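Please describe the entry underneath.
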Amino acid sequence: MKIAVVGTGYVGLVTGTCFAETGNQVICVDIDKTKVDKLSNGQITIYEPGLEKIFLRNLKEGRLHFTTNLAEGVKDATIIFLALPTPPGEDGSADLKYILGVSDELGKILKPNEFKVIVDKSTVPVGTADKVKAAILQSAAKASPSGGGLVGAFAVVSNPEFLREGVAVDDFMKPDRVVVGTSDERAKKIMTELYGPFVRSGNPVIFMDEKSAELTKYAANSFLAVKISFMNEIARLCELLGADVDMVRKGIGSDERIGKRFLFPGIGYGGSCFPKDVQALVKSSGEVNYDFEILNAVMKVNEEQKLFLMPKINAYFNNNLKGKRFALWGLAFKPNTDDIREAPALYMIDALTEAGATVHAFDPEAMPNVKQVVGDKIDFAESQYDALVNADALIIATEWSEFRTPEFEKIISLLKNKVIFDGRNVYDAEQMKQLGFHYESVGRSAVTNN
């Protein structure tokens, strides 16, 4: 099958590469010539475990191509995926200018005698499929004297992605489910054929109307954000009551109605999806005069949680951080990605430096991206241990695997004080006590070395 993917960001590049991996001919389109040149020459532009290997394989085999020319990209494609940014506007709503801009261009390019499926792969508000269809038809009417020639020549489908950064390739190749929103039988047949190789084990392709599919994506991410913020509030309560959040997590996670995932407390969620999608769903709800109270509370809790460690840090240093040096392990919003969008570490950096402290940070993948944002505001270390030299304390903001079993004796020898503030509950509190650390985490009693 011949496929076009418009947009080569995180979703677009994973989508294009994975479809090529099952034998399809894929051409990816992007307006960024520098990025297209890099990709065409085998230089991958995002960090995602497992992606580079299949990217290079399909590039070599001639199944994966890149261009800046939209008309060239969609010319022979049966399916056109729109994997374009939908950044939040100032009011929290998803900005559709990129998707509708490409839709306008498609109206000038598509031909009446060639049926194509236009797929919204981006996370978009309810009603976007209708807007895309209207934009294509309106553009076609302006471009052609006959007007309306494209009616019936294409179908707009909602096919939201459910990719977790860090395991996106596995999520795409072996999906729990595929959600397809379409009322067009021709499109349904084509999408069934397209996803056949990905659901051979029996996981479902769930067909529904376009609006339901659009809402499904927002509902899924928002529900997961609710779970995270709920556990963060339970963690706060545990500290006040003297309970252990790890025990509570295990106790409720074993209930099959609740499940074990997304119950780990920490310093808040970040990334490209949860913050934006929760905000967008609240905005969409407001547009129909519905006050989504629980999601407003989730956003409030999450904003507060990003700085959860700061009162602990201030208390330990007697509310005087001026001149103090902190080692910061982790900058990405989660492990196995270089994505720093809404990363709690960035909020910590701002709070620490505003208080007069210096920060020496290390992250296995995200440091180049952070450098572009903060410049010389902080120092960047060559290794996780280099970050510890002469630091007054260690702060952990991202639970990378290499941080889980470090050389503790080396940590002790490099830090000025045996002090760790753990925003991801990476370490066992009893072990920290035996090693003589002052150790504070989330939802567990502090270990003191005094």
